[in-house]
User: What shape does this take?
Amino acid sequence: MNDERFAADLAEFDRQSKLAPKLYSPVVQIMKKFKYEEQQMRFDNLYATQDTLVFKAFLGHIRATGVEEFLDIGSRLNSMIFFAQFARCHYLEVRPPAVSIDRVKFVKGQAQALPFADGRFKVITSLHAVEHFGLGRYGDTIDFEGDIKGLREIKRCLSDDGVAFISVPIHKPACARTQFHEQRIYSLPNLREMIDDADLKIEVLQIIPTVTAEVKAYLNENPETSPEDILELLMPKATAVAIVIVRPK
Assistant: This one.
């Protein structure tokens, strides 16, 4: 079916090219690389919702406190470029890109040993990154305790009145696991214990579940559903994100 459609599309493209009065890109290469996407455009609801919710909280904090800079550890660069328009970003990366981006300063390093003085930052962000610390997926050093060490470093580099915005994948306890060279998936008890062991306290906790028709309908009818109960709604292969806003104890 795809081959037939490709041939028909190519014939139509060729027909139109012969009728076009001008070719603005005159070299035509025939490529057959991707399958046709019959479904709707792909959209990652978890990332989009995470970034939106954290940005709103981040911006409110920046405006309320007048903080002019922040440290990010491992979040998606395209998101942090946007955040950086409101406060300068020190972007920690194991493999910093050889580019220059306005209001973003790239810093080579790893979360388990942040190259900053104690109490250096009033705001730190780390979105969908803690679960990767020490697993080697992004060229970082293998460290079984990379996640807790990273959180302790976040605590060390936060000022006494500082705040950190963190997100990780989350599931019910029976589905929590470590996937070597990939990620860790936490349960709420795991996450709460790890944050407590890092000498941090949770100020805000929010769960973003995979959106299915059933989950959406249930949550619309039961808006006060607890984080634990939200996770119990998930199928084993589904995913969710926990957003936590934490401060030093």
About this structure: The chain has seven helices and nine strands. The chain has one domain: 45-248. The radius of gyration is 22 Å.
